[in-house]
Each structure stands twice: as structure tokens, then as C-alpha cells.
Write a structure and sequence with these properties.
With 419 residues, the protein is an alpha+beta fold. Helix content is 48%, strand content 7%. The protein has 12 helices and 13 strands.
């Protein structure tokens, strides 16, 4: 299993690097068709630039034979530092054109900011360059000053260039626009940004055990675990500023991803996973195995109600797609549960092995390298979809493979799984 994961890690890296490096304008190219040919306008979105940098830095630190990625991680770090960071007002622009001109009225967002902080931490851990850590600290301070909700806790997610939170649709980018760039209703908080901030604070606290960072990490852990997740393990996607939940569709991959981040945050705070967080994370994963898992072919479906496929009158409300990033999050979540409960009747190990077989059969592009945007069993046209877009970088699969390799080293396998 470890050999297979290592081999696929190198295949993914070879598909993306150095191909995605923009040697003309800096940062990374984000538009490639299914044959890996560059196409499109190649905008520079913060999430994509940060996640490519993060993937390169973590991979370079993983093995000496991947050390050449250090140069690529440095290339990404410099673009985030020199071009995407607002030198006059602080904070990162959410979107630039390829030439570096701010788009979307120079607005900023907590979602991309969280990935940039994690990328700077990964760069610092790889290189020891103190500037990486100092800029991560500066970014945290900017969010603390402009985005922290001192009344209800957590963070506002969408900001003007000067950092002022955008809290109503009439302050949006265009008349009648009621959602921000990642789909969050304007003025509300969301599980996506909140969970990603939880993750980046975990990363930052690991290298900088500052008292305020710890306070915010504990605060965000409690928000995600105790406010957004409710029994029997389902998760609210959106909430009012005071964390009153807003009814909405459930993205199953977000539940898996948040479960991973809850466990990482608990371990960052307490060294070992605390019992309350472990119980909540386990309930989230169990619910996804019950309602999002495909028992026939394996893999996790994308979205639906909290309790799986639901009919409204005669219409089935369920998104069957098995997006690549959801499978990556599922791999980490299942293997983490297998480490904690190797003999449990839920058989997390069996599900992990089935999921990996599913990924190999339906998600990995064995011919051209990289992963399809969605499993070919639910999306037969996936083989012709773009290999890269602003929202499809390589970080999900790279981090999943790296984290699963780390988890495999710590597992005590039940005899029935030994080969």
C-alpha cells in the first residue's frame, strides 16, 4: 500500500510540476485542458496559488528525491509575497489577472487567506526562511484586526480592500449579487472558510505557539465542533454571524474535510486527540459512510441532504458526482479512524482499501497523469474535463497521499488485513 501511494504521489507531482509554473508572470498557471495543454486566461486566484505552493513545499519536505520542488515552493512563496499581498493595506487580494491587476474590486476573502497562511508555514518548515514565518504572523494579525468577530467569535469571511467586512448584499460586487466568490451568502459565515481557518491556525500554532493563536485555535475548534456539527454527525454549511444555523444543502466532502481538521486542531492543542473531538469527528465520518458512501462501487458522493438522497415531491435531490477532492478527504478521514479504531466493527480499514481501489479505477488518469475532476463511474465525461482550473489544483491529492503515508506508519493493522 505504501509503495502504491508513493508511486502515485510522484506521478501526480510529475504531471503538475514544473508544467504549472508560470515563468513569465510568476506564480502558477491554472488553465490546462484534459491533455495538459495550456488554455484560457490564466488568472491568479489566491486559493490556487497558495495550494500549489503548499503542495510543492510539503512534497519537497517529504523525501530527498523530491528536493527540486524546493525551488518551485520558493517561486510560489515569492509570488504570494510580492504580487498577491496588498503592500498598501495588507491582506491578500482574492483574484488578479495574469498581469497582476486586482479583480473583483480588489476584495479579499478569509478562505484564500487561510491557504496562504498554511503555504507560508509549509515554506518556512521546508526552508527555515524566517520571512515565511514573519509573513504568516503578519497575515494572522491582519485577519485578527479586520475579520475577527469580537461579539460572537469566529471570523467574518468577505472583505473590502481595506479589510472592512462585507455584511450585506448591497455591499457586494454587483447589484443583486447575494453570494460571494466561493458561494457563501453575503453577510453569513460558512463551514468552508471556518474549517480552513481552523486548519491554518493549527499549522501556525505548530511553528509559533503564541498565546493568541492558541486562543483563536481553541475558539475555532469549539465553533466547528460544537456549533456547526450537530448530532448524529451532520454539519451546517452556513450560519448567521451569531452562529445560528441557516438551512442549506450539505456538501459531504466538506463534512469529511472538517472532520480531518478537527482532529488535527485537537492534536495541535493537546498533543493527543481529545475524547470530545474524537467522538464528534467519528460521528461525522460514520454519517458519511452511511449516507454519502456508494456501497456498490465505492467512493463518496458530492452532496445532498443530511440523510442522503431525498425526494421532494417526485424529484430526487442528490448530487451523485464523486469529485476528486472528496475522495482525497475521505482517504485521510478513513485512515485516521482506522488508526484510532483498528478493530472496530465499522471497518474503517476495509472502506479505506475500497476507496483506494475506487480512486485507482475511476479517478487516476493512468494515461496522462493527474486525477480526473470526478470519478468516471458517475461522470463519464470526466476524462475530457480540464485537468486544472482556478478551483482544481493538486493540493487535495498531494496532501491526501502524504498524510496517508504518515498514517500508515502509525497504524497497528488487525491480523485480518495483513498480507
Amino acid at each position: 500500500m505504501a509503495d502504491e501511494l508513493e508511486t502515485e504521489l510522484r506521478r501526480v507531482i510529475a504531471a503538475w510540476f514544473p508544467r504549472s509554473v508560470d515563468r513569465e508572470q510568476g506564480g502558477f498557471l491554472c488553465d490546462f485542458d484534459y491533455r495538459w495543454k495550456p488554455s484560457g486566461l490564466q488568472p491568479k486566484m489566491l486559493e490556487y496559488q497558495a495550494r500549489q505552493t503548499l503542495a510543492a513545499a510539503r512534497s519537497a519536505a517529504h523525501s530527498s528525491d523530491l528536493a527540486p520542488l524546493r525551488t518551485i515552493a520558493t517561486h510560489g512563496f515569492r509570488y504570494l509575497r510580492d504580487v498577491m499581498w496588498d503592500r498598501s493595506l495588507g491582506g491578500w487580494f482574492r483574484l488578479l489577472d495574469r498581469n497582476g491587476t486586482p479583480q473583483e474590486r480588489a476584495t479579499k476573502h478569509g478562505h484564500g487567506s487561510s491557504y496562504a497562511i498554511s503555504a507560508f508555514v509549509a515554506y518556512y518548515e521546508l526552508t527555515g526562511d524566517p520571512e515565511g514565518l514573519e509573513l504568516a504572523k503578519l497575515a494572522f494579525s491582519w485577519l485578527e484586526k479586520h475579520a475577527h468577530d469580537d461579539q460572537h467569535g469566529g471570523y467574518f469571511v468577505f472583505y473590502r480592500q481595506d479589510g472592512t467586512p462585507i455584511l450585506s448584499s448591497d455591499q457586494g460586487l454587483a447589484p443583486g449579487q447575494n453570494r460571494d466568490a466561493i458561494g457563501t451568502p453575503i453577510g453569513f459565515k460558512d463551514a468552508n472558510t471556518t474549517s480552513d481557518l481552523l486548519r491554518c491556525f493549527s499549522d501556525l500554532y505548530r511553528v509559533w505557539p503564541d498565546a493568541l493563536v492558541r486562543t483563536r485555535l481553541e475558539e475555532m475548534l469549539c465553533v466547528v465542533r460544537d456549533r456547526l456539527v450537530v448530532a448524529p454527525g451532520v454539519m451546517h454549511m452556513y450560519s448567521h454571524p451569531d452562529w445560528t444555523p441557516l438551512p442549506d444543502f450539505v456538501r459531504y466532502g466538506q463534512v469529511l474535510r472538517s472532520a480531518n481538521f478537527l482532529m488535527a486542531a485537537s492534536e495541535a492543542l493537546f498533543v493527543e486527540l481529545d475524547q470530545v473531538t474524537e467522538r464528534v469527528a467519528r460521528s461525522m465520518i460514520d454519517m458519511m459512510l452511511q449516507f454519502a458512501w456508494d456501497p456498490d462501487k465505492g467512493g463518496f458522493h458530492l452532496a445532498g441532504s443530511s440523510f442522503g438522497p431525498t425526494k421532494i415531491e417526485n424529484t430526487l435531490v442528490f448530487v451523485k458526482d464523486k469529485c476528486w477532492w472528496v475522495q482525497a478527504e475521505g482517504m485521510k478521514a478513513l485512515l485516521a479512524m482506522a488508526r484510532l479504531h483498528p478493530y472496530d466493527a465499522a471497518e474503517y480499514t476495509t472502506h479505506f482499501l475500497r476507496l483506494w481501489e475506487y480512486v485507482k479505477k475511476y479517478v487516476i488518469d493512468a494515461k496522462r497523469g493527474g486525477w480526473f475532476a470526478a470519478g468516471l463511474d458517475t461522470n463519464p465525461d470526466g476524462a475530457k474535463r480540464p485537468k486544472a482550473t482556478t478551483w482544481k489544483d493538486c493540493s487535495h491529492e498531494v496532501e491526501a497521499l502524504l498524510d496517508c503515508l504518515l498514517l500508515l506508519d502509525s497504524l497497528e493493522w488487525p491480523t485480518k488485513y495483513m498480507i
